[in-house]
Amino acid sequence: MAAETQVLRDCEKKYIAKFFSDASESDVKKIDLSTLAWAKHTMTLSGASTENFKIGEVITVGSAETFLVTGFTSGATTLEVVGWDNTNKKATSIDTGSSNGDAISGGVSGSHTETLANSGNLIGLEWNVLVTKIMWITNGLQVAIEWDGSTAEKYIAELSGNGSWSMSNMEWPGIPINATGDTSEVLGDIQFSTTGHGSGDSYTVIMELKKQAPGFDIPAYEENTKLGFKVDYLKGNFT
Count of H helices and E strands in the chain? Predict the structure, then answer.
């Protein structure tokens, strides 16, 4: 038995992945919104910041964890960040390896007086996505796709046979999250369940999500004018 996820695209506005499984599944989480690239998180500081962060700069927390600043207000006790792969210069899943008390240093703003005041998983924003396309092949089983919610889960679709479905082709905006409850930040995560699974049965599903602001987006570079930094939209923000 095997279950595989292949990410085809993960940018600031879109996520596309292929899911294959020949196993029996029940409420198996396939998409965790908090782990997608450009998923914004709140980083808490040990006090009101005496130094400004540049929006669009890379910060290093502790010895190795890197993040991209997407939002900050002068004198605030928090900043908004996304996960950042500084080697390849691209947004990635948020790094959970940081610890309370870790030093913070910016690639532009330098060392900061305040330290990190939360550990591991940073606080997530309200992530919002739309399901815009699904393509599927099922062999001998059905696949139920649901929005997760700690209070109530809701169906996105139940798939059987073979087919494709595109909201953009039908001039509709997409299927929004209608589950409820966000305990442990599960609201909007997507899970699969199978029915009628037997030996040799399998499915392949390709799904496209449209990421919605404010939970997903590029940095608000124009806000740098309020922070005393040059506004630039190129890679100079990242250094």
Answer: 0, 18
Tokens representing 227 are: 């922070």
- What pLDDT digit, counting tens, does each position of 68-99 carry? 999 999 999 999 999 999 999 999 999 989 99
Q: Is CATH 2.60.120.1330 the right assignment for the domain spanning 3-35+127-212?
A: yes
> Quick check: 21 and 29 in contact, CB under 8 A?
no
Give Cα separations from 24 to 17, 21, 171 (angstroms).
Answer: 20, 8, 35
Q: Cα separation of 121 and 97, whole Å?
A: 8
Helix (H, G, I), strand (E, B) or coil at 90: strand
Phi, psi of 216 (to 5 degrees): -135, 130
Domain boundaries, the chain: 3-35+127-212, 41-124
pLDDT averaged over the chain?
Answer: 93
pLDDT (0 to 100) of residue 121: 74
Separation between Cα atoms, residue 13 and residue 168, nearest integer Å: 15
Tokens 């207000």 correspond to what residue?
A: 73
Identity of the residue numbered 22 = D
Closest CA to 146 of 162, 134, 158, 160: 158
* Torsion of Cα atoms, 209 then 212 then 216 then 217, to 10°: 110
Q: What share of the chain is helix, strand, coil (3-state, %, to 5)?
A: 5, 45, 50
Over residues 107-165, the pLDDT tens digits come to 999 999 999 998 777 888 889 999 999 999 999 999 999 999 999 999 999 999 999 99
